[in-house]
Amino acid sequence: MEANPAVDDYVSRKRWLLWGFDWAARRIRHVGLRRYGAETSDAIAGEARAEYEALIPQLPYIGGGRNPYTRLIIAAAMFLALYKALKRRGRPVEEIGELVHETVQAFFDTLPRFLLRLYGRLNFTRRALRGAHRGALESQEREDPGGWVYAVVEGDGVAFDWGIDQLECGICKLFAAHDAGEFVPYMCDLDFIASDYFGWGLARTTTLAEGGERCDFRFKRERGVRRIIP
Question: Are residues 136 and 55 in the same domain?
Fold first, then answer.
């Protein structure tokens, strides 16, 4: 019988993936406490963890460690698990979106600001751009149907330094497979939170999740976040 690469890649690391979930949950526990109190917050966290554990063998294989987007799939699965747990409790999507935004900001606030900025500067190095070009070409071969397909856009250094046009999104696919497509726009907004902490200067006018033909990421080092809505 042919081996399932997703099982090999994710299930073999299940212990560490669950450890990562628990580590993040501890750092942002105060967000749930403030919203729901200790008993309800702990119950939700336990339900979300169980959902995440169930999701692990279902995650799409998109190349494993050779593909940096694998980390995004893993992180997105954590939020999908939280969405599932809260949706089962009848919570509206707007409330879940607010909670996720609060938790992401709270998580970033636990990390040293200078390290976040240092990491953000790596996005503008020649090595990062070469890697983006290489990844884009590989994505266009569509060997991993559950992943991303994108193209690099050269910048002029004035309007933006460089950009990405995403033509297919792994998070959209993952959430759609679990009837959670309504939550993807809230996931998209997390890009602007990350941009603020990393200093990416993200500007974007359209997304696949909102019905666009692409997600047009445009990066300008240290520019303030620009969320352009047509």
Answer: no
